[in-house]
Amino acid sequence: MRLTKILRLATRDYGHEWQMSGCFVLALAAVLGPMLVLFGLKFGIVGGMLDQLVENPENREVRPVSSGRFTLDWFGNMARRSDVAFVVPRTRSIAATIDLSSDKASRILPAEMIPSGRGDPLLPADGPVADGMNDVILSQAAAEHLQVQAGDRIDGSIVRHYRGRKERVHLDLSVAAVAPVAAFARDGVFADARLVEALEEYRDGRAVPELGWQGDPPAEQRSYPGFRLYAKSIYDVNNLKDDLTGQGIEVRTKAADIDLVMRMDRNLSAIYWAIAVIGLFGFSLSLGASLWANVDRKRKELSVLRLVGFRTGDIVWFPVTQALYTGVLGWLLAVAIYFGAAYTINGMLVDQLASGQQVCVLLPQHYLMAFAVTVGAAVLAAALAGWRSARIEPSEGLREI
What we know:
The protein is of the alpha+beta class. Helices cover 53% and strands 17% of the residues. α9 (312-348) runs antiparallel to α10.
């Protein structure tokens, strides 16, 4: 009952002195509002850059600089690594080509064969897979040149010079899907790694029993000159690069671009938090001093409360309650300021942004974190005034009567 009454008295007093209460709320919003806008800009710009890095699979690719000799055991070990999302063997680039034709186009199209498989980062995760010796996925450019779409059939052929004779074999291929434009800009065919390997075997004069192609016996120990390798995330690229370099494999990555954005994120975060701590610390001292002065100004009223039976712990809740009101109302006003500023900033730059992209943006957890920090700082500031109010004796009220 005593606590309920003291909370009611603190609330009525806070509303009665609305001018002073409003000044406290405006002071908090003046500090918190710009900080929310600053963090929204930091999160929107750097967060957008990080999202682009994460979503673009090219940033997770690890490319060998020169040819090597990679065995199936090596590929098996890499595929089992937790930081590797996708890895397949690459054949020699000169052998990874095929001539394509369709009934709808008059030209024969030379295209690059890209070894692929389930989980290929360049292809949609829920889309069809180039699986087996007859299903392929065409790049957008190749599909347009051949005038075909998913479900159509095309003819693929390759030529070799074998024992003094020129030989050509044909493959009846089914277009399982057409890859997104960003997957491969040139004329290309995403195919099962076994099919790409079969084309190289045939060109080298070896037999391919799966396709009925005659030739010399296959090599007993197969090795590959290259690979397609993608890290699980952009944060794993550096580690993979270091491990491969330690194996004597020179690779090329976009680790420098990733590191630049991550350093920018860390530096801007450090600057933001330094400003936030200084601002909240200054406001907490200002609010604490104001509440202290408010308690001194109301010493007579607070001592009378002690005189009529309120305990020390009850009196402490008087400034704490008012500080909570200031924290909540100041946070609400700061959020309103942020929404107005963010709407203006995003509207000014809408022509320079991609669809759905925002320069100034905050997530729900950011608002909750700002609320918790604001209310916490207000309560800590009120603790100083609460300690002051707890030292007021009932006798002070008697002397004032």
